[in-house]
Amino acid sequence: MAGWDQYITNLTSQGITHAGIFGTDGSRWAASPNFPNINNIKDDLPKAFSAKPEGIMVNGEKYIFIRSAENFAILRKSADAMVIVKLNQAFIVSIGINQKPEMIIGATNKMGEYLKNCGF
């Protein structure tokens, strides 16, 4: 889905280190170069929105849940942050290396709202 690459470029141009869009079935719609491996992405991303979220393994390292809301979740690993935005048909995953989650939340949520309004 080459058309999705423009959304990844938009997010990474705002300072996000890695960004990806994944279907709810775990399929990769688009991702930045060298996007980290999220083990069991199909199972892990929905966990972010469960009543008792657990961490998510990324490249063999665990990101711990900090906060979740109806449509987004924030995770941390040391100085790194991850934001997951839930759409109707997909998830947007943004990872910032040595970045605070506030910047990542704003850019990822804005993209999520746009894509939701487009029916995704």
Secondary-structure blueprint:
Elements: H1 5-12, E1 18-23, E2 28-31, H2 41-47, E3 56-58, E4 61-68, E5 72-77, E6 80-86, E7 90-96, H3 101-117
Antiparallel strand pairs: 1-2, 1-7, 3-4, 4-5, 5-6, 6-7
Subunit structure: Occurs in many kinds of cells as a complex with monomeric actin in a 1:1 ratio.
GO cellular component, one term: cytoskeleton
Organism: Rotaria sordida
Structure, described:
The chain is α+β, with helices and mostly antiparallel strands. The chain has a single domain, classed as Dynein light chain 2a, cytoplasmic (Beta-Lactamase, 2-Layer Sandwich). It has 3 helices and 7 strands, in the order αββαβββββα. A 7-stranded antiparallel β-sheet has the order 2-1-7-6-5-4-3, sandwiched between helices. A hairpin with a 3-residue loop joins β4 (61-68) and β5. The longest helix is centred in the C-terminal third of the chain and has 17 residues, at 101-117. It starts with a helix and ends with a helix.
Number of strands: 7
Helix % is: 25-40%
Number of domains: 1
- The name CATH uses for the topology is Beta-Lactamase
Q: What would you say the CATH architecture is?
A: 2-Layer Sandwich
- Shape category: globular
Which strand order spans the largest sheet, edge to edge or round the barrel? 2-1-7-6-5-4-3
CATH class: Alpha Beta
Number of helices: 3
First-residue to last-residue Cα separation: 14 Å
Order of helices and strands: HEEHEEEEEH
Low-confidence stretches: none
Largest sheet composition: 7 strands, antiparallel
The CATH superfamily is identified as: Dynein light chain 2a, cytoplasmic
Give the percentage of residues in beta strands: 25-35%
Average pLDDT, rounded to a whole number, is 89
Structural class call reads alpha+beta
